[in-house]
Amino acid sequence: MKTIFVTGGAGYIGSHTVLLLLESGYRVKIYDNLSNSHLEAVKRIERLSGKSVEFIEGDIRDTDRVANALQGSSAVIHFAGVKAVGESVSNPLKYYDNNVLGTIELLKAMKQSEVKKMIFSSSASIYGNPQYLPIDEQHPINPTNPYGRSKFMLEQILRDIYDTNRGYSFGILRYFNPIGAHPSGEIGEDPQGIPNNLLPFITQVASGKLDKLRVFGNDYDTPDGTGVRDYIHVMDLAEGHLRMLEKLDDNSFDIYNLGTGRGYSVLQIIKTFEKVNGINIPYEIVSRRAGDVPVSYADVSKAQKELGWRAKRGLEDMCKDAWRWQLKNPKGYRSSM
Ligand code: NAD
Ligand code: UFG
Questions:
Q1: pLDDT value at 166 more than 90
Q2: Peptide bond preceding 134: is omega within 30 degrees of 0, i.e. cis?
Q3: Which of 4, 29, 129, 317 is the most buried (most CB within 10 A)?
Q4: Which ligand is closest to the CA of 125, given by its number?
Q5: CB-based burial label for 192 (10 Å; 0-12, 13-18, 19+)
Q6: Which atom of ligand 2 is nearest to the CA of 85?
Q7: What domains sit in the chain, N to C, each tagged with a CATH number?
């Protein structure tokens, strides 16, 4: 049985992926500093899967600790990182330190332990303002903030390592907008403080924690004037990692967009959430949020063709599952403390 080393495995996307790995017969070691997650997520993954996970609390910048923990693993899925676009503008060093330096230390540890396979969490934010749609993997790269730049720097670093060392295999996955939760409502996204992203904000408005949603702009060149994104169910995203893992061989470098290929506007998201959950979402239109692109959605044909993967869940499932998670866990993982 293969052991997969999952950095950031207690976090939002990591926890859903770890659950699928266990259900698919892999052994898993989670390495996470819990800076944006809770041990409770790991307990729930164990409960849902009926299997145990080795959890190591640590920072990816601690090279020796990572190298020790890596022993016996056949591949790394690397989710650990910081991800708030706005914070990356006000505190870029945090992003270069955690994401870029952190990944470099992880790569050194992998070299020491002779682990040569990695799946890396990249982001659609590296494309910047789309020059054409849908966005394919050949689209020019032009990140507009330090978070996006940290991801692109890392893609280049991985490419350089691949080019100069035999036997490495890298799978780079550029996620579009992951939302939703496991259908059990046991694991999901648990942002600290007031959420930045649309869906967590909507679920907190729905639960009465926040009084209304602010829709950032209705004057974009889109059908209803509000921003359009490619929202993907986190379980579909997790399945994409399994397909990528199966494809990693002893010498490969691949990049894939993971999205649905469909764009939805903010108002469409609100309407769908209201309809499937029977809840009213009060909102007001405010000015555009600095740095937002008008429209972004993926060309997913490469992942379909080469990974045999495509997103199966629709927007209604995403909205229902996000709400079930919020209802069962009004204070996120803190609800069970
Ligand atoms: P998350 O914050 O829920 O998970 C990240 C996990 O990494 C957390 O458990 C955190 O505690 C851990 N971590 C952070 N820094 C660490 C460090 N130095 N050492 C050890 N552990 C550390 O985020 P997520 O939404 O699950 O995102 C996972 C990855 O996917 C990130 O790299 C993120 O940049 C990328 N990504 C996310 C999105 C999104 O919208 N959620 C979109 C594109 C890309
Ligand atoms: N929006 C609102 N009100 C809110 C929050 C968001 O109207 O309170 C709008 C935004 O203007 C945008 C859409 O909802 O049109 C989606 O916004 P999110 O903040 O949920 O997502 P982004 O597309 O801005 O960014 C997300 C992640 C990034 C990632 C990017 C691409 O936050 O880390 O998707 O993967 F890089």
A1: no
A2: yes
A3: 4
A4: 2
A5: exposed
A6: 33
A7: 3-336 (3.40.50.720)
Query: How many A from CA of 219 to the centre of ligand 1?
Result: 32
For 52-73, how does the pLDDT look when each residue is reduced to its tens digit (9 = 90+)?
A: 999 999 999 999 999 999 999 9
Residue 222 C-alpha to ligand 1 middle, in angstroms? 30
DSSP class of 145 = S
Question: Which residues are identified as catalytic?
Answer: 147
Say if residue 337's pLDDT is above 80: no
Quote the tokens at residue 318.
């995403």
Listed residue (284, 147, 175) closest to 226, CA to CA: 284
- pLDDT band at residue 335, thresholds of 50, 70 and 90? confident
Summarised one tens digit per residue, pLDDT across range 90-145 is 999 999 999 999 999 999 999 999 999 999 999 999 999 999 999 999 999 999 99
What is the best residue among 18, 34, 35, 197 to mutate for testing ligand 1's pocket, by most ligand atoms within 8 Å of CB? 35
**Straight-line distance from the first to the last Cα atom of the chain, in angstroms, rounded to the nearest whole number:** 34
Ligand 1 test: best mutation among 121, 145, 257, 258, most atoms within 8 Å of CB? 121
